[in-house]
Amino acid sequence: MDLSTPTAPGEFLPSGTAAPRVLVVTFNRLVPADQGNARRIMQLVRLYKSRGFEVDLLYHNEEGFDPALSHALAAEFGRVNVVRSRAPKHILPGHVCRIVDWYDRGLEAAARDMHRLRGYSVVHVNYVWYSPLLEQFGSDVVKVLDTHDIFGERREKYTAAGMKPQWFSTTYADEDVAIRRADAALAIQKEEAAELAGRGHRNILYLPYVEPALRPFDAPDGSRPLTFGYLGSGNDWNILSMAEFLSRLQARGVPFPHPIVVAGGVCRHVREGAGVIKLGFVQELHTFYDAIDIAINPMVGGTGLKIKTVEPLCYGKPVLTTLPGAQGLTHLWTLPMFDSVEAMTDYMFDGFPARGADELVAQLTALAAGTRRALDAEYDGQVDRLFRWLSTRV
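-> structure tokens emitted (394 positions)
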């Protein structure tokens, strides 16, 4: 799959006309794209560019701004406008967040000024609490909302796991109003698209997260010990999941016979243990994936698509995951999935002794390649669907 080549070259760029423009609005620090949500946004930026759009950025600065970021954004986008965030972000009792309390009206003048100067065909906002900004644009501008996740009653998933709710959770009613502001709302999971459609929305487009394949699916050559790996940020779900995973490994009473490499912000919360190697933050993803043979994602819960489950397939690595880690992917997934972390660790101990696991590793590598092909086929079809729809509006 080549994301740099449009499926319909010139579809949005008739002869003799200027490139149509997209305004992307986000609070995320996009370079380097070291968080899943930033990588999702850059996926869409590349898609728009590949279809002949010029892409501008309105950065709602909540994650810092410095000369290095300024230079990187200037190289990536046609125009960049940075607005310091003054969103109050109140959280009401019961961990209820109202969109009006998370929306920053200070974005409106900047968005209007950019539109007056640049004349956008599409405005693309990320997360439902940015949807009020869509009302600053007329009916001649296509309005796209990338939901990233379902935030209606999201807090319930935390409380069900015995965790304190974090970040944004709103009511279904508030979320529904936000989605209706858009001409199209993107869902990153097929199940989320179905849920939103079941709530009466008819503007939902399913677009999964897939990145270009960067490494072939080759089984390890045996030149190093078979190595497992986990890459994740330091969010609550990742911390809880890795704590459960390592606890289950240690509960077996004997050391797991293969090294486990852990990278990303979660390292600050992972206790030392035999066979656990903590890399910390990695500047380049290939540094991590080139150091492992099999990726793991022992998720115990969470919301949204687990990018850490898809990403290893870009680097030619098979993935072992629990069912929560495969949420949104189960209809295509041919690799093993486990209904609990305990079942996953049992599989690892039983299937990967100190020696003699070559055949199983080769089988997993072949299954990973097949899963990647299935993901690519679905992704290409959904991308074509999105841009066929967009071609009728621009």
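The two ends are 25 Å apart (CA to CA).
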